[in-house]
Amino acid sequence: MSGSSIAALAAATPYFQSNGGASDHSREVRLNKMFDNLRNTDQGEQDTLGAESTMAYLQSLGANLEDASLFIVLEIVQAPSIGEITREGFVQGWKAAKQVSSAVVDARPEAHQQYFSRLLAQLATNKDVFKKVYRYVFVVGKEKDQRALALDIALTYWGMLFSPPGQRWVTASGVDFFEEWKAFLSETWTRSVNKDMWNMTLEFAYKTMEDETMGFWSPDGAWPGVIDDFAAWYKKKTAMDVDA
User: What is the pLDDT of residue 44?
Assistant: First the structure.
């Protein structure tokens, strides 16, 4: 793809500063130029990166298309789907990105790559970073006309998120709750995964990693029914294991 490499993009978007930082307008102009250089001109849409261009861009930043790093970039640019990036999402997403110092991320490929690398390094340990990425996966992962994820798709995404470089759903003593969750859903759940179930699964995951006995859980609590069913299933299973 023409202009897809970091070097080519860098040459097309020279760095300059004004009064200590590029103005919003100049950054927007350069971000639009970056987007144009990423776009495959064989594709008709001027304001959309198709699947080939999107995947090439993700890889140019260092994202692995088979793990959670993929979703970091898609969240930054507010991609509408995994194989598509819009001009508006790309420009506005990178304009909104901030460094630790609250300084804007400069409109240069190297700066974008560095910003991505910093978030990637934090993904496994920073709950705020992980939660932001995790929640966006539901948005970017579902079909545009659907309100929920198919179970097999949700399990695939959970598998990517709950394994390195994401945050493992495993307790300090080694209880692999993601494997238990996956087994439970595969055995008992026949429905799709809606937004509430998706979001609350992460909240439940954090609770179980703090207390693997699930002392926090009560059947009268406010958890979704599927999580209540899982907690009851897991407690019964572990009790049987102890008795055996």
Answer: 63
Q: Are the folds of 24-122 and 148-243 the same?
A: yes
Query: How far is 182 from 2, CA to CA, in rounded Å?
Result: 42
Give the three-state DSSP class for 75.
helix
**pLDDT value for 13:** 42
Among 156, 144, 164, 9, residue whose Cα is nearest residue 90? 9
Does residue 113 contact residue 62 with C-beta atoms inside 8 Å? Answer: yes
Would strands 193-194 and 148-149 be described as parallel, antiparallel, or unpaired? antiparallel
Selected residue with higher pLDDT from 32 and 240: 32
In the predicted structure, residue 102 carries a pLDDT above the cut 80: no
pLDDT tens per residue, range 59-98:
999 999 999 999 999 999 999 999 999 999 999 999 999 8
CA distance linking residue 125 with residue 136, whole number of Å: 18
Cα distances (angstroms) measured from residue 91 to each of 17, 24, 86: 18, 11, 9
Identify the CATH homologous superfamily for domain 24-122.
Answer: EF-hand (1.10.238.10)
Indicate the SS3 state at residue 158.
helix
Length of the chain in terms of residues written: 244
| Percent of the chain that is helix, strand, coil (3-state, to 5) | 55, 5, 40
Q: Tell me the average pLDDT across 11-30.
A: 59
CA distance between the termini of the chain: 60
CA distances from 76 to 73, 89, 95, 214 (A): 5, 8, 10, 34
